[in-house]
Structures are given as structure tokens and as C-alpha cells.
Amino acid sequence: MQQPVWRPSATIDTLRKRADFIKRIRAFFDSRKVLEVDTPLLSSVTATDLNLDSFDVISADPEPRYLLTSPEHAMKRLLAAGSGPIYQITRAFRRGEFGTRHNPEFAMLEWYRPGFSLQDLQREVEELLASLGYEEKAECMSYRQAFQRFVDLDPYRAETSALQEVAAQASGMAASELSREEALDVLMTHRVEPALKPLGAVFIRDYPPSQAALARVGEDAEGDAVAFRFELYINGVEIANAYDELIDPVEQRRRFEEDNLARSAAKKPVIPVDERLLAALPDMPESSGIALGVDRLFMVLEGKCRLEDVLGFPADRI
User: How confident is the model at residue 60 (pLDDT cuts 50, 70, 90)?
Assistant: First the structure.
């Protein structure tokens, strides 16, 4: 029998468990003297990333306003102001994201650790998971190792045509329609991520520089340029995304402008450059930071397959 449309999609018992889950996250950071902060959801700037679409808010203001995809920019300004280690559990918004693992409004845990390496942050993620009841040891591999293991191609040195051909076979798309970056994205979602499902928790690190977003770029042991970041997957579900944070304002401006060129070419709205963040970056300490999907993590740890099973009111009930 179908539920009445007014009812929450998750059971009340699940929502009680969810509330306790969030309490335990707060207790973890409070015990480590990490400051909980609160930043605005509404902003005059938002993410420039081509793959992120923000909700723009219609108002009488002379400048556009957006619901934020992440609290990242404001939290980095707090770091620059001397906050020390900080965390936040907040709402985030991404237009067009619907599905069993996506909802346009979702709960995000984001935290930053001045002086932490990515290895330090990875250990802290494992300790957080253990505090939430997930104590299995996580496997760690590089982006290159994941592709070599599950696609049998080197994502840095393989010919573009080879990547396109395998991506086309995996997705049913035409190889000629795929750029190199699009082929890599298809292979990640169609070949790598499904292969991670039986492995439990997996950290994938050292992504191509074209996927650096707001991470520093350097060289790996093979001499190839890589973005210093990692992603956490559990049972094949992407849970968290971490960066060795970029603090160079010149490079950050270049990336914002490059993003906007790509957005313009894709006929997407151009996003104003965040001048306040750029002004803050010279004072920001070297830090590692991470964004974690609270809904997804709770879903996985509860053994659920759909976000709607752990949300009170997903988008189709509001």
C-alpha cells in the first residue's frame, strides 16, 4: 500500500537514529576541540565548477543571490581570520541532482584542519567512521592504480582514443562524442565505482590536475602532475571529497576564470569571482579540508539503498 503523500519517507525510528548519528558526529569533533561554526546558506557568489549547478534566488536585490553548494568559501575566510580547526554540519543545495543517491537539498559535514596533511586527514576520517560504528580497515589506492586495476588503462598515459573506445563500450555512448575528460568521468562511474562495491571503504587519491577544483597540484612518484586530493567510497558509494587546500590567490583566480570560460562554452551561467575569498587566501594557513555527505553516510551505515529511506522529506515530498 502506497504511503499518503503527506508522510515522511523515512520511518520515525530511522529519524531518531539519524538524530543520534548527528549527535555522535558533533561529539567526535567537540572531543578534539574542533570549533563548530555556522556560515550563511545564501550568498552573492557560489561554486564556479562546471559540474555544479546552483539555485539562484529571485529577489529584489540588485545582485544575484545563490543557495550554496558548499560552505567552503566562507569557512576558508574563517581559517584566514585565525579560527583554527573548524567543522560545520549544514544544508547544501545542488540543482538537478535527483535519484536514489541524490537530492537537491542535502546535509553536509565539512571540516578543515590547519597543519594536517592529507594522510593526517585520512586517518581522522577513519577514526570518525570507527566512532560511528564502521570499524573495517579501508583500502587506499591512487586514481592511476584504480584505473589500471579495473579498466586496464593508465588514465595519464593512455591514448585519448583508447579511453574513448572503452568508455563508449561501457556506456553505450559514441566514442566521438566524448572528450578525454568525459571519457575519464564515464570510466569512473561505469567501471571503477561499481568495482569498488565489494571492497567496503576505499580511499582514492591523486586525481588528474583537470579534476583539481580547489586542491593543490604537484607530481606523483611517476613524475606525472596530480591533484592532491582523495575521495572516500563505501560499498561503491561516494561519501567524501578531500583536498590539500589551494592557498595561492593567483592560481585560484586563474581556475575561477577557467571555470567560467568552460561554463560559457557550455551555455551555463557565468558565476561572479569570489573576490573576498581571493583576498583572504594569503592569510589562510596550509590546511587539508573535506566535505562529507551526511545523508549518504547514514544511508550506507544503516544498510539502506535509497536516500529517501533516511530523509524525512526528499524533494518529491516538498
Answer: confident
Closest CA to 105 of 70, 157, 134: 70
Residues 6+ apart with CB under 8 A from 254: none
pLDDT tens, residue by residue, 5-25: 889 999 999 999 999 999 999
Sorted by sequence, the CB contacts under 8 Å of residue 227 that are 6+ apart come out as 206, 207, 208, 209, 211, 212, 213, 215, 216, 217, 243
pLDDT for the residue numbered 1? 55
pLDDT digits (tens, 9 = 90+) for 131-176: 999 989 999 999 999 999 999 999 999 999 999 999 999 988 898 8
Joined together, the cell numbers standing for residue 108 give: 553536509
Residue 77 reports pLDDT greater than 80:
yes
Q: What is the pTM of this model?
A: 0.92
Reported as a single tens digit per residue, the pLDDT across 184-221 is 999 999 999 999 999 999 999 999 998 888 899 998 88
Q: What is the 3-state secondary structure (H, E, C) of the chain?
A: CCCCCCCCCCCHHHHHHHHHHHHHHHHHHHHCCCEECCCCCEECCCCCCCCCCCEEECCCCCCCEEECCCCHHHHHHHHHCCCCCEEEEEEEECCCCCECCECCEEEEEEEEEECCCHHHHHHHHHHHHHHCCCCCCCEEEEHHHHHHHHCCCCCCCCCHHHHHHHHHHHHCCCHHHCCHHHHHHHHHHHHHHHHHHHHCEEEEEEECHHHCCCECEEECCCCCEEEEEEEEEECCEEEEEEEEECCCHHHHHHHHHHHHHHHHHCCCCCCCCCHHHHHHHHHCCCEEEEEEEHHHHHHHHCCCCCHHHCCCCCHHHC
Give the dihedral sign, CA 146/150/154/155. Answer: negative
